[in-house]
Every structure is written in structure tokens, then in C-alpha cells.
Design a protein that fits this description.
It contains 20 helices and 17 strands. Strands 10, 11, 12, 13, 14, 15, 16 and 17 form an eight-stranded mixed β-sheet that branches. Strands 1-2-3-4-5-7-9 form a seven-stranded mixed β-sheet, with helices on both faces. Helix 4 links the parallel strand 3 and strand 4. It is elongated and about 100 Å long.
Length: 512
């Protein structure tokens, strides 16, 4: 009987703790789910595989589980670690045991070599527990140390459900991918109230750090979810492209024929080098049907990045977007490209570059915004990535743009050119004006001048005729568009066991 009573006591206490804190009405008014209902959206059988640290701060009735649920769950039969803030407990704020639970689940993810999902709905650190818990060696401040150790070891995905300020705002930006729920989430180094106190500026959370701002301007949000249900679906889809860890294989899916027929490619790519088109249509004609998941779709739109499947297997795609700013590379798109390439390389995801760019943007504004430094990071990431990587010259490959896009000198496993490809130091208009400006200006008759310009343009273009460059082995192969998908599948399969070690060193001095 005594044993049964002990069991009843623990079960009753567990039931009490799992009900959360006193602020259920508050989350209803905010339109948010209770944390344990939120978890049901993610996991097979709608429950964690196991939960740990449930009884943290059990002696304090108003702090059940100390405001955070941690453990593992199965997503499409794959195990992932997780932490999930409980907003009904002191607005999900981080106290001593709350932080320690996060530290422990991070350390478990390091050892267990499986992805970790951060479901963040926290007002930040608890002021009433400030003491030294946020700076001590094994305190909450160590969370970002663990983030750093986890980086590149296992995928880290953060989902934001509410405002995240100060320390909690670093959790999503330390993760590989950040998903923000629209209208309810936000992140900033300080709250609007603190900003006003420090600077006098009055600003609301949407302007300061809302989902739209971070998705379009700062680039800190990879995806914006319309609802909590949508956020869970994005996480599930994203995980389907990622391995459990850096040395695990990515999931393989049944092959699906492309959404667009490969015969459409020649129609998609305009004959005129400066005419815009949507590179996503080209992607749809190459990859498995409905498999393209664009990352940072609303940020630096002149570069398209995302995951897709080719013959059932994950590839990371980096593509210039001629429909936006002519496909030129700006500081923001260089930053976007570097981060995506570096992430793919960390998890051994093959890379496919679709090059159609006039090169890096020039001018005072982009120089002030760090085009050289950020462009360097993009080139560095593409140079250092030693996963299977293919470069397809779709149309324009002018100037240093082809360096960032893993052109021939940057060790792609193959450089394929389409018949529409043009490889040159700059476009014909800029080139003939740079070389022959005085000669052109010396011709007074407008018709004669136009004839001269046309003659010089044709002479210049003859120098980079793609058949001529193919004959000189500037590119490895010249492929007709209708055969591009087949060619890429064969080449990626060939290089599945790629072994191309980089020169030995501790690490680079370049941070991408």
C-alpha cells in the first residue's frame, strides 16, 4: 500500500506540473497555444518521445517545470531534441533551473548527434533571480557557448512564438535556421521600452524586430509562418532535407518527375542577356517535382537559395535571380549566399550553382555596406566547401560574380555551360566603352558611330562564344538544356563518395 501511495503522489505531482502555470488566460488573449498543445503539432503520436527535468523547481507551485519543457520527440520517425518555453510560467522567463534544463538538453544533443529544435516564447531572463546565474561558468550564459559547439555538428532550428529580447534573441540567430510566427513573434537586442529609455526612440515591436522586418531587412529570419501550425509544418519539411548530424546521410525520397518539362528550359532562358526571367522556373524544370524549399525567400531576392531533391536526394541550390536587380550580387545577397553555402557544407549537402550574374554591384553605397568584405565571405564559402558541387553557367557569368558562384577556378566537380552561356570579364557594352571610348567619341556621324559600336560589340562577343570557350576547355562540358537534369543526376551520383581534403590548418581567419 505504501508503494502505491508513493506512486500516486508522484503521478499527481506530475499531472499538476504538466498543467503549466497560472497564465493560461493570458496566452488565450494573445492567440497562442499552451506549450504542451504546441508540442502535439510536432511529434508523432502528438507527444514527446521522452521528457526530462519535469520536476525542476517542483517545490514552487507557481514555477512548474521552471517554465520550460525539454526532451526528445519523433518527427516522421526521426528523433530530435527540443526545448519549449512555457509562457504560462512567468512569461516563459529564464531562471536558474530553466536555463540549466536548456544547457542539459543542448549537451545531450552534442552527445546524441541529433537535431535540436528551440521553441522560444520567452520574455528573457528573470530579473528577480539575476544574481550571478547568467555569468557563472555553468549558468544560463553558457547556452550560447553550447550553441557554438553544436553549430555544424547537428542542425539547430529555432521557432519564435512571441517577443524575444536580449539573451533569448541570440538563440534564434545562433541557430542554423530561424522561423518566426507572423504578428506574434519578434526579436531584438532590447525591448521597445529599453530602446526608448536608452535612445529616446519610440518604436513598436513590429518595426523594431517583427517577423516582416527580420525576413526582409536584417535577414535574420529564414521563414515566416502564418500560424503555429504552419511553423510546425515548416520545421518538418526543413528537417526532411537535413541529416541528423554532420556525418549522417540525408534522407532519400522516391523520385518525382520535375514540375516543368526539361524541354521548357530553352524557352525559359531569354536570348537577350539583359532580359529578365524567373530562375525558379529553371529550378522547377531540373529538380524533383514540388521539392524546392526556398530559404530567406524575402531577403536579398537577387539571389535564390534553398533545398531541393534531385533524383530523390537533397541538394542545396544557389541561383542568381535575373528578375531582381538583374541578378547582380549585393552585400546582402553575398551574405545570404555565404551563410547558405557554409551551412550546406557543414552538413555535407551537395551544392548546385546556377550562374547568371553581371557580377558584384559597384558604387559608393555598396562599398559603404561592405561589398568587398561580404563578397569575400561568399567567395570564401564557395572555395572552402568540399562537398560535391556543380556549377552551371546558365547565361551571364561576368567579372568576379563567377568566383562566388563556384566557377571553374573554385574547384567545382564539373562546370557545365548551356548554349546561352556567356563568360567574360564584363558585358559587351561596358567593355567596348572601357576600351574604345575615345575612338567611339571621335566619330561624329551618329550612324557611323552606331555601326562602329555594333562592329566592336560583335568582335568582343566572338571572343567569349561558348563553343569557342568549350573548345578551349574553359568549361568542362557544353550541354543542351533538355539534358541538364540527366547530366546533373549522373554527376552527383559519381561524386557521392567525394574525398577532397582541404590544406591542414586550425581554422580560417575569414568568418562567413
Amino acid at each position: 500500500m505504501l508503494a502505491l501511495e508513493r506512486e500516486r503522489r508522484i503521478l499527481a505531482e506530475r499531472e499538476r506540473i504538466q498543467k503549466g502555470g497560472p497564465d493560461h488566460e493570458k496566452i488565450k488573449k494573445l492567440g497562442k497555444l499552451f506549450v504542451r498543445d504546441r508540442l502535439k503539432l510536432y511529434f508523432d503520436d502528438e507527444q514527446p518521445f521522452y521528457e526530462t527535468g519535469l520536476f525542476a523547481n517542483a517545490n514552487k507551485e507557481k514555477l512548474p517545470a521552471d517554465g520550460v519543457v525539454v526532451g526528445t520527440g519523433k518527427i516522421d520517425n526521426r528523433i530530435a531534441f527540443f526545448m519549449a518555453s512555457d509562457y504560462t510560467v512567468k512569461a516563459g522567463s529564464m531562471g536558474k533551473y530553466h536555463s540549466e534544463k536548456i544547457l542539459r538538453i543542448q549537451q545531450a544533443a552534442i552527445r546524441g548527434k541529433r537535431p535540436i529544435i528551440y521553441m522560444i516564447d520567452s520574455s528573457g531572463g528573470r530579473i528577480d533571480e539575476a544574481g550571478g546565474y547568467h555569468v557563472e561558468k555553468y549558468s544560463g550564459g553558457r547556452i550560447w557557448y553550447n550553441h557554438s559547439l553544436l553549430s555544424g555538428r547537428v542542425p539547430q532550428i529555432a521557432v519564435l512564438y512571441g517577443p524575444c529580447f536580449a539573451g533569448t534573441a541570440y538563440m534564434p540567430v545562433f541557430s542554423d535556421f530561424c522561423i518566426m510566427v507572423d504578428k506574434t513573434s519578434g526579436m531584438a537586442i532590447a525591448s521597445p521600452r529599453m530602446v526608448q529609455m536608452a535612445t529616446g526612440q519610440k518604436v513598436d515591436i513590429e518595426e523594431l524586430g517583427g517577423a516582416t522586418m527580420h525576413a526582409t531587412k536584417s535577414g535574420s529570419a529564414d521563414f515566416v509562418a502564418k500560424t503555429e501550425e504552419d511553423a510546425a509544418e515548416i520545421v518538418k519539411k526543413l528537417l526532411s532535407y537535413l541529416p541528423d548530424s554532420f556525418d549522417a546521410k540525408t534522407p532519400v525520397f522516391p523520385v518525382v518527375e520535375p514540375t516543368r518539362d526539361s524541354s521548357e528550359i530553352d524557352k525559359i532562358i531569354p536570348k537577350e542577356p539583359n532580359r529578365a526571367y524567373d530562375v525558379r522556373k529553371l529550378i522547377e524544370a531540373v529538380v524533383d517535382g514540388d521539392s524546392f524549399l526556398e530559404v530567406k525567400a524575402n531577403y536579398a531576392k537577387e539571389l535564390v537559395t534553398g533545398f531541393a531533391r534531385l533524383n530523390g536526394k537533397t541538394v542545396g541550390i544557389v541561383a542568381n535571380q535575373p528578375m531582381q536587380k538583374g541578378g547582380a550580387i549585393f552585400p546582402e545577397s553575398a551574405d545570404k549566399g555565404a551563410k547558405f553555402v557554409w551551412t550546406c557544407d557543414a552538413y555535407n549537402i551537395p551544392l548546385l550553382y546556377l550562374c547568371d550574374t553581371p557580377g558584384f554591384m559597384v558604387g559608393t553605397k555598396v562599398e559603404q555596406e561592405g561589398i568587398l568584405r561580404k563578397g569575400r565571405n561568399f567567395i570564401f564559402a564557395s572555395s572552402s566547401a568540399n562537398v560535391p558541387k556543380m556549377c552551371v553557367i546558365v547565361r551571364k557569368a561576368y567579372g568576379a560574380g563567377i568566383y562566388a558562384m563556384a566557377g571553374p577556378a573554385y574547384e567545382p566537380d564539373t562546370t557545365i555551360a548551356l548554349p546561352s552561356a556567356e563568360i567574360a570579364i564584363m558585358g559587351p557594352e561596358a567593355a567596348i566603352n572601357a576600351v574604345y571610348y575615345n575612338k567611339i567619341q571621335a566619330v561624329e556621324d551618329p550612324e557611323e558611330r552606331a555601326e562602329l559600336v555594333n562592329k566592336l560589340r560583335e568582335e568582343y562577343k566572338a571572343g567569349y562564344d561558348i563553343v569557342k570557350l568549350s573548345s578551349e576547355l574553359v568549361v568542362d562540358d557544353l550541354v543542351v538544356p533538355s539534358e541538364l537534369r540527366k547530366e546533373l543526376i549522373s554527376r552527383y551520383e559519381t561524386f557521392e563518395n567525394k574525398d577532397y581534403p582541404l590544406p591542414e590548418k586550425k581554422h580560417s581567419t575569414i568568418l562567413s
